[in-house]
Recover the amino acids of this structure.
């Protein structure tokens, strides 16, 4: 029965999601477009004063990243729930928490990574200094996986609901606040030319915490949603 | 004997009866303590040398803030008991606590804001503690929304338990991150007025009120839990008997 090893199951799962994402490119591109659009709304809304933009830039980019991540979260389990694949994960002989981790990894590769890659461009648009942009990149590198990991718990809890999307934002956004605080103040601090080791360590700690706990919570939540 | 008592308490029928007997006592004690606390707080305790009489809202504000955290922890704890040992009553207590906790959080926010008006000159300051309370309110509202969205009561209770556990891990992180954010952005301003160690004449009413609030929570949660038990067990024989006897 167990002729597929666990690593093979995980790599197959990730590969399958990547292929699916390539076939539905719009789903992959939309959150990215949203990210760029929301960020470029701010200069239009608050005025293009470079000092002002530089001051609010890190916060704006991070809030936009949170919203874009939120928009894409539902995709982690939705289609698998609708065609019954999710039940097969729960029935499989592999630990559900590790399969969940594979799903989250795939989700991050599809939505978090593009966000990360385009962020320097947005940093330039908002006039952040080079140091700030570098640190912005690092905070997004450490932070976007946290968004996917925490978000997965929320999605798992709401996947069976008809109007899950609205509730999902209510569940997940408050949990994103610490990350938002640490990340945007890291970029601020870097732009001021100070050391950000403490900020980055804290974000890394959040990542480790989310990485070690959220798969279990997600697996438990999936079991409940599908019971 | 003790074991037996808990076993009986865990059955919805006995819980309904025991809770019904407890509620008047808890409510009466709550009333007495809050009357005493309000008397000592509003009449006996002297005015503060800095804040005058406006500090007296503390006798509501501080216990409400304590309760808001306490109830979240109770909710997570009973939720965990419900998840691990499949104890239905723990689920019932967890979900019955959520609206009460949200109300206390709201009360703490409102009284904090009213307190802030004469102290800081504005209704709202992004003070670290007020901000944490606001986020706590969002967490409560998330729990209530999730519970309302899932139709099956048992599934809803278990989903809520998971959310409450995730939230309870995050509360300290949120608290310290907000505190840190606040000191970074604002620095020690008016919000950090030096806290004089509290005088015994103010401490007594504060503790009386805190106890009264705990009792209030106890009897209201029992009332809500009784309703929830009735709705869950509406097809059981004992509920039908109860209705027919009326």
């Amino acid at each position: 029965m167990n002729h597929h090893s666990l690593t093979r199951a995980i790599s197959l799962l990730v590969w399958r999601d990547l292929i699916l994402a390539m076939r539905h490119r719009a789903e992959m591109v939309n959150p990215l477009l949203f990210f760029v659009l929301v960020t470029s709304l701010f200069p239009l809304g608050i005025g293009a004063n470079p000092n002002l933009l530089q001051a609010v830039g890190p916060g704006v980019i991070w809030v936009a990243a949170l919203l874009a991540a939120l928009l894409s979260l539902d995709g982690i389990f939705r289609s698998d729930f609708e065609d019954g694949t999710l039940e097969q994960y729960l029935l499989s002989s592999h630990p559900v928490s590790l399969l969940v981790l594979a799903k989250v990894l795939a989700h991050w590769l599809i939505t978090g990574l593009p966000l990360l890659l385009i962020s320097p461009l947005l940093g330039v648009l908002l006039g952040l200094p080079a140091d700030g942009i570098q640190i912005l990149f690092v905070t997004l590198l450490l932070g976007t996986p946290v968004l996917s990991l925490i978000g997965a718990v929320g999605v798992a809890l709401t996947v069976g609901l008809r109007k899950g999307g609205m509730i999902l934002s209510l569940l997940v956004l408050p949990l994103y606040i610490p990350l938002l605080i640490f990340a945007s103040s890291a970029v601020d601090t870097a732009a001021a030319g100070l050391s950000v080791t403490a900020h980055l360590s804290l974000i890394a700690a959040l990542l480790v915490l989310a990485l070690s706990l959220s798969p279990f919570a997600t697996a438990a939540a999936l079991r409940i949603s599908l019971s | 004997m003790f074991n037996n008592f808990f076993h009986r308490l865990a059955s919805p029928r006995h819980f309904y009866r025991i809770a019904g007997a407890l509620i008047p006592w808890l409510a009466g004690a709550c009333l007495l303590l809050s009357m005493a606390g309000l008397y000592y707080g509003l009449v006996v305790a002297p005015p503060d040398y800095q804040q005058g009489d406006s500090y007296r809202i503390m006798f509501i504000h501080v216990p409400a803030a304590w309760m808001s955290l306490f109830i979240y922890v109770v909710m997570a704890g009973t939720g965990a008991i419900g998840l691990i040992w499949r104890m239905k009553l723990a689920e019932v207590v967890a979900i019955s606590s959520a609206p009460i906790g949200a109300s206390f959080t709201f009360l703490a926010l409102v009284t904090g804001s009213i307190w802030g008006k004469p102290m800081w000159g504005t209704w709202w300051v992004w003070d670290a503690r007020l901000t944490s309370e606001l986020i706590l309110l969002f967490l409560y509202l998330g729990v209530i929304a999730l519970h309302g969205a899932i139709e099956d009561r048992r599934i809803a209770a278990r989903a809520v338990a998971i959310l409450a556990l995730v939230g309870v891990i995050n509360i300290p992180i949120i608290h310290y991150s907000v505190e840190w954010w606040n000191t970074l952005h604002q620095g020690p301003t008016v919000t950090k007025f030096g806290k004089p160690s509290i005088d015994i004449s103010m401490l007594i009413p504060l503790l009386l009120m805190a106890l009264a609030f705990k009792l209030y929570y106890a009897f209201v949660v029992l009332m809500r839990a009784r309703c929830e038990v009735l709705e869950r067990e509406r097809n059981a024989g004992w509920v039908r008997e109860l209705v027919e006897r009326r």
Observations:
- The interface with chain A takes residues 83, 135, 138-139, 141-142, 145-146, 149-150, 155, 158-159, 162-163, 165-167, 169-170, 173-174, 177-178, 180-181, 184-185 of chain B (CB under 8 Å).
